Each structure stands twice: as C-alpha cells, then as structure tokens.
Amino acid sequence: MQIFATEQIRAWDEYTIRHEPIASVDLMERAATACYEWLLQHHYKGRSFSIFCGKGNNGGDGLVIARLLAQSNHSVTVYILEFGHKGTEDFQINLARLHETAASILFISSNEAIHPIPSQDVVIDALLGSGINRPADGLTAELIQHINNSGNEVIAIDIPSGLYVDHSAKGNIVIKARHTLSFQCFKPAFLMPENAESIGDVHLLDIGLLPGFLEQQAAPFQLVDQAMVSAIIRPRNPFDHKGDYGHAAIIAGSYGMMGAAVLCARACLRSGVGKLTCHIPTQGYTIMQVSAPEAMCRTGENHSPHELEKYDTIGVGPGLGTHVENFDLLNSVFEQNRRPMVIDADALNLIGQEKALLKQIPPGSIITPHPKEFERLFGKTANDYDRIQLALQKAAEYNIYIVLKGRYTFIASPDGRGYFNSSGNPGMATGGTGDVLTGIITGLLAQKYSSLHAALAGVFLHGRSGDLAAAYSSQPSLIASDLIEFLGQAYQSLT
Ligand SMILES: NC(=O)C1=CN([C@@H]2O[C@H](COP(=O)(O)OP(=O)(O)OC[C@H]3O[C@@H](n4cnc5c(N)ncnc54)[C@H](OP(=O)(O)O)[C@@H]3O)[C@@H](O)[C@H]2O)[C@H](O)CC1
Ligand SMILES: [K+]
User: Fold this and answer.
1) What is the pTM of this model?
2) Where do the CATH 3.40.1190.20 domains begin and end in the chain?
C-alpha cells in the first residue's frame, strides 16, 4: 500500500471526481457517510454529539456527519469556527442542508463564544484537515485547547486538527483524539511516534477512490503489508535439500548475555535456514547446545572469527558486549566477509564509538538500530520526520539498509525508497525481541532473499508473530521467545 503526501491525496480525490465521475460534494457525502457508519458500528449509536467544524472541506465532512446523525435522532450541536470567509463550496452546500435538520448550529467568532462542552457529548473534530498550511493559532488554538481540556472523548475526522499530513507539528497545538477516522490510505503523520498522543487509534475507511490512480504514482513511502510479503516469500520445491536454504553464522553472546545469542539462533533456525553455526564464547557452549540443538557451535578466543567465507551470510551483535577486543572482532568480520550481512545491538554500539567502521560494512548489509542506537550512530534529529530523512540519506551514503525499529519500523533503502512496517504491537516492547528480528533477517538472507526482501519480509513476519502471540495470550505477557514459537503460524498466515 502506498503512503501519500498531501498533494497526492488531493490529486487522488480529483482523479476520482474526474474519472468515476462523481461530484465533489457527493464524494464528501461518501466520506462522511463512512464516518457516520463507523460511529454507529462502534457503540456511538444513541450518544449526543458536539461537532466542531472549520470552513474547509474537513468542516464540510463534519457538517454531513452532523446531518446524518441528526436525521437519525441523535442530539447534535454544531460549532462553526469563523475563519473570516464563507467557506468552500461543498461546505456551504452542506451548511444549507444542515439547516433543514434539528441540529443546533452555533458560530464561534471570539473567545467569549467558547462555552463548556456537555460532559456526556462525544466530540467530533472537523476543524482542520489536510488543507492545514500553518500552525493553529489565535482562536483556533484556543478552541483546540478547550476541546483537549474538556476531557470529552474526541474523534478526529481525517487527521487531528493542527497536525500536518507529511511534516512535523512538534510543539504545535494539536487535537488529542481517541480515534482518528481517515480515508483510504495511511498518512505519514499516523506512523510517527511523536504524534502518538494526538492520533489515538487510526481507522482507515474505504471511500472508493479509484485504484487506477495508483498505477501512475510513485509514492514517497510504502506500507509493508501482507500482500507485499506474500509476494516475496517463495514456496519450497519438493526436491530441495538443506544446501538450498543456505548456511548462516551468528556471532553473538557474552557472559551473562547468552540469552540474546540463543534467541537470535533459534529465530534464525525457525526462519527456515538450511544450516546455522553459532560463533559464541566458550562459557556459552553448553547453553547454546542445549537451547538450540539444531545449531552447530564454534567457540574460541574472541568468538573465533575464522573461516567466515564459507557462510552465505552472518548476523553479528546480539549480546556481544562492547569490550575493546570486539573492535578487532568486527574488523576481522568485515575483512573476511564482503557479502551483505546483518549488524545489530552491541555491534552497532561499537560502530557508534568508532565511526570509521561504518565505511567497512559490506555493501548491501542490513543494520537494525532502535532509535537510541540510531542516534549513537548518526546523531540527534529535531523530530521523527527528520530522522527518517537522515536514515534515507545514511542508507544511500553507506550503501546499506537501515531498519529503524519502532511501532512502525522504518526500512530505509539505499536507492532512496522508504517503507513502514504495518504489523506488530506494543506487547513487543520487551527485551530480546530485537535479537529475534536479527535471527529472522539473517536466516532470510542466507536463503538468498535480496537484502531488501529479507529486511521487508523479516520485519513483517516478526511483527505478525507478535500479533499472533498477543492474540493467543496478551500483550503484557508477551516475551521474545513467543515470537519464535509463533513464526510458523506467521508464515502460514501469509498464504
Ligand atoms: N479523499 C479524501 O481524503 C477526502 C477528503 N475530504 C476532506 O477534505 C479535507 C481537506 O479539505 P480542504 O478544504 O482542502 O482543507 P481543510 O478543511 O483542512 O482546511 C481548509 C482551510 O483552512 C485554512 N487553514 C489552513 N491552516 C489553518 C490554520 N492553521 N488555522 C486556520 N485556518 C487554516 C486554509 O485556508 P486559508 O485560505 O486560510 O489559507 C485551508 O484551505 C480533508 O482533510 C477531508 O476531511 C473530502 O470530504 C473528500 C474526500
Ligand atoms: K480534523
């Protein structure tokens, strides 16, 4: 699924209006009807509503929702924020239609006109949508603060008022919604951690925008979804043998952190790799042999980084520790292996301390930092949008794939393309889930998936395992081992 910027969303509306064809006011009716139906299907039937509208088409959506609610015997009060102009054509048509109903209509043109919101009312926020072009200030800002301070449940239409679709509104005054009802496709704003407080739960409603538009568009970002990953994962051939699925190595673990190495190894095995050898410290030998009997082990000084050429790929980092000898270890790995590999955790922290190592990473490799590790490698950014741009820039500079872990993990490709993963849940915010991800991606690389495909399929399967595990038990109880147990079902769910 494509993730569009503001101009493309507008162009998609216009394309649909021209080619369906459908009048703009009827498209608004369709969008608002989808919101109205969502409300009825989600326990809002019979409630009373305070609906706040601007004078653009976002406000127009609010007026249609108000009419549909009033016509179905809901108590509706509509507050229209005076912007000093008449409003868009579709706004005006729908204001006239609203006058035919029992809804109360009040205009807010000064602070004195802002009154307490009845505590039982559901608030609908239709003040500003994708047409926002400056921070909310003056009366608009006052009204947003008033709504936020009311404690009422807020449902935002299209996007919480005050947020921009595709750049940061950090520090600005923005509606805090419990739910956001948006249309057709994800907006970049919904995928940024800095907006979590504003957007609440996002629900995408189908308003029948024509798919023909998608063929003409290069979107700035793509959503990694089931359709994309199902097309990546290849079925197995009946005559295949283990040699066909590659030999991976994992270089991981240290005293007190063998768990990370075990999780990584077991995830790698479950990803479908043909053979796995673990390069681990001597004191971890028994732990690994008992925990992952399918894996071979190499022990010796400094993880015994020898004869690495024989592996199809290598995953390095989980539980490695950051002692100084590990700089030699990394140097040795990068010298012997020039094929794409996976670099995570302490290996990234070492590179963060010795930035010259960045240039030695084999081309096409995948690094998997969480935001703190990313910051140690590439520095701080002012906001989440800038961090994504920095990831794209660094991916190109070092010819690597950057998997920036988070609720919607971002994958920066060196060719400038960016992807947001759609699977996963907050239950996965627990120790060891990153080690599992490294194991899965290493296993996919060994199976000769391209770096891009290994990264995309790896993050999606990892998140899907988390979703299945959380559905089976719960989010709070989820532990990293559960992801490995559910990886089989995650594969199964693709078909
Ligand atoms: N497929 C769809 O997505 C559909 C979406 N629809 C809805 O349409 C809106 C977008 O409507 P638009 O009229 O383009 O924009 P807004 O309603 O968001 O804004 C209207 C005007 O408000 C002014 N503005 C901008 N920023 C501010 C601000 N900070 N404070 C006050 N006013 C502001 C600006 O006008 P100016 O002349 O003052 O610059 C905007 O033009 C979309 O979000 C959906 O809700 C349709 O229903 C169809 C389907
Ligand atoms: K809104």
Assistant:
1) 0.95
2) 226-493
